Amino acid sequence: MAGTTMINKPFSPEETRRIVHHLQQPAVFLNMTCDWPVLRWTAEHLSSCLGDRRVRFRLGRKEKTNTQAPLFETQCSYVEASVAQFLSWTRGQSGTDVGHFSEYSSSEYWAYADYKYIAMLFQDQPFMFEHVKWAEFGFEGRNGRESTLWIGTEGANTPCHLDSYGCNLVLQVQGRKRWHLFPPEDTAKLYPTRIPYEESSVFSQVAVLHPDLRRFPAFRGASAHIITLQPGQVLYVPRHWWHYVESVDPITVSVNSWIELEVDDVARVNEAVTKTVVCAIKSARSDDNTDDWLNPTEEAVASHNENMQYLNLAVRACAQRERGCCHSKLSPNLRDTQPVKRDSDGQIKKNSDGVRDCAPFSIPYGPYLIPVHCQQELRKMTPEDVEVNSSNNCAVRSQGDCAVSSDAAERSKFAAAVRLDQETHERSTGSTQCYCADGTSEHLSEHYEGSTHTTITTNNLLDCLVHPDIIARVTELLLEKHTGSDRTTRSS
């Protein structure tokens, strides 16, 4: 048609969907969203669209971001306000309506509205859903209806966590956000906890920017993947990758789409077991069990009967699926392996998304798809190493306004912070660091002189009970009992 400009995207929907299916590490897509109307969704534009509609903002003290303990959502303040009031507050405009933000100083607090479902925000403006075109990533029919909106100020952050289900596509709309990502293999080094409890998230006990290496020594061996996402870029976060996210500009807006590539019944059983155990123990009254343990994203504590009903449904669904897959053995790892499926001719079958399983495929990294590379263990790196690796990793850049930040300074600062914490502790304790064959470490002086005995708390016990390896084994046993395979195993 006359007057219509066709924009050639670097990848077709089919190519993009196949890339996402095969990606095993975070990557950034460039020049894929240049014509998406959602790029006009600045905070000011959203303010005019939403009017007086109120959303919930989370507030945290800026000074607590620099401590050696994560600032969990249970420790934050919350206000209900319009986006217009939020903007007036961030600008320090005296005499304007800032609502409940008036109780907080913008110089002392950051604010963040996260996981706001676009389907709910714009339920009276459904045309807004079409501004987000995830169908161009190969997910047919997917738009903004299945996405969430994030709006924050500089310094706003989410505690380091992993998502229990699926993967994420994140489009940066306004400002920049810095992502610190860690692979699933680093789970033990991130010291996972289920307190606070949220059904879809596992949190880390480590403040990754300022780690307390005396409490969490294994974090020295964690591999940080750091990227600053620019407007127009899309970050792919694979399943079970840990991530800590912080806003680095005065105002940031991003759109997130959570995608479950395949129905993961095992993960649902794992989560059902975890929820049942956590709710049962944290609902018990005791002197040391009075903390605010339920994340604000969870509406209420489910009863034991409700949790057991959900657990039974999850086990049945998983058992039926397992029977359909020839009783394949469950993987105890966080990332479940998928068997290759073949048709009667021996050809690899396509899954429900039309993507060939385990087919040979070379991911087309280049100017429009930038990998967020793995790095060496932090305790083995110098700032110079990080800077060189960073510049090499991000040497290829696209044209126009879609350039991935190298983050050399940030990676150097991150690695230096880990080393500084380690050196400070060794000077103050006079201990000698010993690195063991399994990658863990011991302070020899503490090992030989003995350490102070501490009381085991309810949360200590809970962390052990819901450890990923324990939960995976419980899931195996439950499925064996449900299907009767335990009797078969013993008699064979």
How would you describe this structure to a colleague?
The chain is an alpha+beta fold. It has three domains: 247 residues, Jelly Rolls (Sandwich); 111 residues, no CATH class; 81 residues, no CATH class. It is 28% helix and 20% strand. The chain has twelve helices and 17 strands. It is globular, with a radius of gyration of 24 Å.
Reconstruct the topology from this structure.
Blueprint (H helix, E strand, L loop, with lengths): L12 H10 L4 E3 L13 H8 L3 E8 L15 E6 H9 L17 E9 H4 L25 E7 L3 E7 L3 E8 L2 E6 L9 E7 L2 E4 L20 E5 L4 E4 L4 E6 L3 E9 L5 H18 L21 H21 L44 E3 L11 H11 L14 H22 L3 E3 L5 E3 H6 L8 H8 L2 H16 L1 H7 L1
Antiparallel strand pairs: 1-12, 1-15, 2-3, 2-4, 4-5, 5-14, 6-10, 6-13, 7-12, 7-14, 8-11, 8-13, 9-10, 16-17
Helix pairs in contact: 5-6, 5-11, 6-11, 7-8
Brief characterization of the structure:
The protein is of the alpha+beta class and 492 residues long. The chain has helices at residues 13-22, 43-50, 83-91, 118-121, 265-282, 304-324, 383-393, 408-429, 444-449, 458-465, 468-483, 485-491; strands spanning 27-29, 54-61, 77-82, 109-117, 147-153, 157-163, 167-174, 177-182, 192-198, 201-204, 225-229, 234-237, 242-247, 251-259, 369-371, 433-435, 441-443.
Distance between the termini: 71 Å
Q: State the total count of DSSP E strands.
A: 17
The CATH C-level class name of the largest domain? Mainly Beta
- Strand order in space, largest sheet: 3-2-4-5-14-7-12-1-15
The CATH superfamily name of the largest domain is Jelly Rolls
Structural class: alpha+beta
Shape: globular
Total helices: the number is 12
Order of helices and strands: HEHEEHEHEEEEEEEEEEHHEHHEEHHHH
- Total domains: 3
Low-confidence stretches: 327-354, 376-403, 431-450, 487-492
Arithmetic mean pLDDT:
81
Major β-sheet profile: 9 strands, antiparallel
Q: What CATH architecture of the largest domain would you give? A: Sandwich
What percent of residues are in strands?
15-25%
Q: What is the CATH topology classification name of the largest domain?
A: Jelly Rolls
Subcellular location: Cytoplasm
InterPro entries: Cupin_8 (IPR041667), JmjC_dom (IPR003347)
Function: May play a role in cellular stress response.
Protein name: Hspb associated protein 1
